[in-house]
Write a structure and sequence with these properties.
heterodimer, A: about 450 residues, mainly alpha, about 70% helix, B: about 375 residues, alpha/beta, Rossmann fold, 6-stranded parallel β-sheet, 6-stranded mixed β-sheet, globular
Chain lengths: ~450, ~375
């Protein structure tokens, strides 16, 4: 919170705020990519990120309060009963967040239900104890693919590459994991491991392709990954359209057979909670990426290339080979993300299975400031938003789109640190501050 | 020195601001703990604890509640059930991605719903797993059954599977189109190559062939062939531009009746029909709507809709919810047909004077033949 020193200028003049904004716009070499990177990262701090999240919740609450029908009716009687209107607006805004919290972290009603049970053993057997932890379990389940796919975006950032293709790599992982899941028969554990490794390999193959194209031909990874997203989505539809490929027998729907029970990721805390080993994989991968970046020669080369490829080349590093390697690992992480969805929760693959994970991954990586630990926290936050949405929607009637609005507004504020600094009178962070260097940008 | 003098002022302002923010943020959790959470808790349970009350719950797929297709129809069925029985209240949860399916169903399991209605084959696995884990909870699923391969496991008796044999009314639509065409060419296309889509196109193709065999005509169907199962698809159910382009192509090839089986993509087809008629200066081209009555869901194009090849989701869902509320719920498969009103042609609306009476009589005969089984309606997409 050291940033929160008062700004030196008078509050009425536009002085320091616009000066800060200009500083951001200029950027070191004036290129768009640089300016973007600077705006997102260099001036950013953990404080700004937390304030951005807080501000987004305030904005979301206002939006909710002023679009709710009951509240709008209450405003009509503003002059006769002003307290009623304000109280209704407050209850609506806070009520939605309370339900979201109860759906994603802790629900006191479940504890009450637990204590109403005759004995502890029946409470455990009937799932009342599990119900207490169910919100956290749901948050972890929703966060698992976001963390893995977020890492798949964050890791290449460190080496100066924008991986927009987490979606295509995720589809690659899903295809391989699903095929191994229903196509072969193996004992438990072996089958799980084979499918997970297959998922990694499926994603890594696509990541490798992107890196190889960039290293050999100079094809820009942003273009290649965006196009691959479409290619893989249609390829998936193709695979699911024919019985001799991956379509389930005796159906005309675009869906595979369910994977074998032996290939399911084991549940961590019994059958009442959906949390599974995928969450541990995600955490292990985050730790692994941190170790790779900060404790190995390869990671040092990645970061050097991310900061300045020319200098890295002069220093004797093989830039092209590192591009291929970092994309291969990133693709594998995205593939793992797909494998955890198939093996952890869905158990079948259909033409929409990839959902919005690949796109959400970019926002998770941005919110996590491109760092493994940050990605875990960002993934957990977005996972909690998703996990809390059903209860919020069911109990308060708040549209589920509120979650999307919150995500978007959070990223909006995170991407605009000058705005947050102006709002909270923060001093601009020094260039090259906590955010560190994430990528070289579009002109790499 | 001016700046230094102002620092305390700015600091005080910032402190006030921070204090204000701090108090609002710190009071939020306390308010949640005391006032609003018991309120919301009681509101969420009020629908279930009152005696005689029945809660009908529906989970949408990713298309959302207002998709002008099966989600909207299913919700209309829920509301029709509520209108028919004042003890029934209904609510829905919207899924934005597939990862919402299981949590949404689980949330409703916690709400003690009398019946949980899910929509579409993508929710088949999630519904089946929930039905297996909660044998006393009643479920209904639209457009999904064991027979169609959507549900795969051992049969659960607590799932009402609502499927629709739309090859039958598609057949009638094809017969009608063949009887109306002036150019001898009609066209159909789909959104994606799904069984629930191609079954309409199969029926349409069959109906045209049947008309040809009865009248010795040679009406051609563009865009689909029931025997080869090859035809035209736009690739999704949302991109209206693709529907417009494809329809314009069919019109330029000589088709004068178009049958899009592609949800909202059909709106693009309607635009192409509108443009073609404006260019010709008269009503040269017309079309059929699909799933729901087009004159109700897209009234601005009603004058181009000869009829709509409907899928009776609304009555089917209504019946299922009412049966669960009255205790007569049995589970199993309901197949909507011409005979039971689950697959029908919509009224002609603005076209009622333009369809020859003789053709309407023939349609009634063909319909009776289909219902009795005398006329075969082959399809490669069985329900």
């Amino acid at each position: 919170m050291s940033d929160q020193a008062a700004s030196p200028g008078p509050a009425t003049s536009p002085g320091p705020a616009t000066a800060g904004a200009k500083e951001e716009e200029r950027g070191p070499d004036g290129s768009f990519g640089r300016a973007l990177r600077d705006a997102i990262l260099e001036g950013n701090t953990v404080t700004v990120t937390i304030l951005a999240i807080f501000t987004a919740f305030v904005v979301g609450g206002l939006l909710n309060a002023f679009t709710n029908r009951t509240v709008l009716h209450a405003w009509a009687s503003l002059f006769s009963a002003p307290g009623h209107a304000i109280a209704t607006a407050w209850d609506t805004a806070v009520g939605a967040y309370v339900e979201m919290f109860e759906g994603s972290v802790f629900n006191p009603h479940t504890v009450a239900a637990l204590f109403q049970q005759a004995s502890f053993s029946t409470a455990v057997h009937d799932g009342y104890l599990s119900a207490v932890f169910s919100p956290l379990s749901e948050t972890a389940v929703q966060a698992t693919p976001l963390i893995l796919a977020g890492l798949a975006v964050a890791l290449p950032y460190q080496a100066g590459l924008f991986n927009i293709g987490a979606q295509s790599q995720l589809i690659g992982g899903m295809i391989v994991a699903t095929f191994l899941g229903y196509g072969v028969s193996m004992p438990f554990f072996v089958h799980v491991v084979v499918c997970v490794i297959g998922g990694f390999a499926g994603g890594a193959a696509l990541g490798w392709l992107v890196g190889e194209l960039k290293a050999r031909t100079g094809a820009h990874e942003v273009i290649v990954t965006i196009m691959l997203n479409y290619i893989m989505a249609y390829f998936l539809t193709y695979l699911l359209s024919f019985g001799y490929l991956m379509q389930a027998p005796a159906t005309s729907n675009q869906i595979t057979s369910p994977i074998a029970g032996n290939a399911h990721l084991p549940l961590l805390f019994g059958s009442h909670l959906r949390i599974n080993a995928g969450f541990l994989i995600a955490l292990a991968c985050a730790a692994g990426v941190w170790w790779l970046l900060n404790r190995t020669t390869i990671g040092f080369e990645f970061r050097s290339i991310g900061k300045n490829p020319s200098a890295a080349r002069v220093a004797g590093m093989n830039v092209e080979r590192n591009w291929v390697l970092v994309m291969l690992i990133a693709g594998g992480l995205a593939g793992l993300s797909g494998a955890t969805v198939i093996q952890g929760t869905d158990f079948t693959l259909n033409f929409q299975s990839y959902g919005t994970y690949g796109i959400d991954a970019i926002t998770v990586a941005l919110l996590g400031l491109g760092r493994p630990f940050g990605v875990v926290l960002a993934g957990l936050l977005f996972g909690a938003l998703h996990a809390g949405a059903p209860l919020m929607q069911a109990a308060t009637g708040t549209p589920v789109d509120m979650v999307e609005v919150l995500q978007a507004v959070i990223v909006l504020f995170v991407a605009a640190p000058p705005l947050i600094r102006t709002m909270y009178r923060l001093r601009a962070a020094r260039a090259g501050g906590v955010g560190g260097v994430m990528s070289k940008g579009w002109n790499a | 020195m001016r700046h230094t003098a102002l620092i305390p002022v700015a600091a005080a302002a910032a402190a006030l601001l921070l204090a204000a923010c701090g108090s609002s943020s710190s009071s939020a959790p306390s308010a949640s703990g005391t006032s609003s959470s018991p309120g919301s808790g009681s509101s969420s349970t009020s629908g279930t604890t009152t005696a005689g009350k029945f809660l009908g719950c529906m989970v949408t797929d990713t298309g959302g509640i207002d998709d002008r297709s099966f989600n909207a129809s299913s919700w209309a069925g829920m509301q029709a059930a509520m209108a028919a029985n004042s003890n029934i209240s209904v609510k829905y949860l919207q899924s934005t991605t597939q990862s919402d399916y299981i949590p949404n169903i689980n949330t409703f399991l916690g709400e003690k719903c009398g019946i949980i209605v899910t929509v579409g084959f993508l929710m088949g696995p999630a519904t089946e797993a929930a039905a297996k884990a909660h044998p006393s909870q009643k479920f209904a699923i639209v457009d999904c059954s064991y027979a169609s391969g959507c549900l795969t496991g051992p049969k659960e008796s607590n799932i009402d599977q609502l499927v629709f044999n739309t090859v039958q009314d598609g057949f009638l639509g094809g017969y009608l189109a063949a009887g109306l065409t002036k150019t001898g060419k009609v066209a159909t296309f789909g959104g994606e190559d799904f069984g629930t889509v191609t079954i309409y196109m199969d029926g349409f193709w069959d109906g045209v062939q049947y008309y040809n065999s009865k009248h010795g005509t040679h009406v051609q169907v563009l865009g689909w062939n029931e025997q080869t199962q090859k035809g035209s698809f736009t690739g999704d159910f949302t991109n209206q531009t693709k529907g417009e382009t494809l329809t314009s192509t069919f019109i330029s090839e000589g088709a004068d009746i178009i049958f899009p089986v592609a949800g909202n993509v059909g709106l693009g087809a309607a635009k192409a029909v509108q443009n073609a008629n404006a260019a010709a200066g008269s009503q040269k081209v017309s079309m059929f709507w699909v799933d729901v009555d087009g004159c109700i869901s897209a009234p601005q194009y009603c004058k181009y809709f000869v009829t709509s090849v409907e899928k009776g989701i609304v009555p089917a869902v209504k019946t299922s919810v009412l049966s669960a509320a009255s205790g007569t719920f049995k589970g199993g498969t309901y197949v909507g047909t011409l005979a039971n009103g689950g697959a029908t042609l919509a009224p002609f609306h603005l076209w009622s004077g333009k369809v020859p009476a003789s053709l309407i009589t023939q349609l009634e005969q063909v319909g009776a033949g289909i219902a009795s089984g005398a006329i075969a309606t082959p399809t490669k997409s069985p329900v």
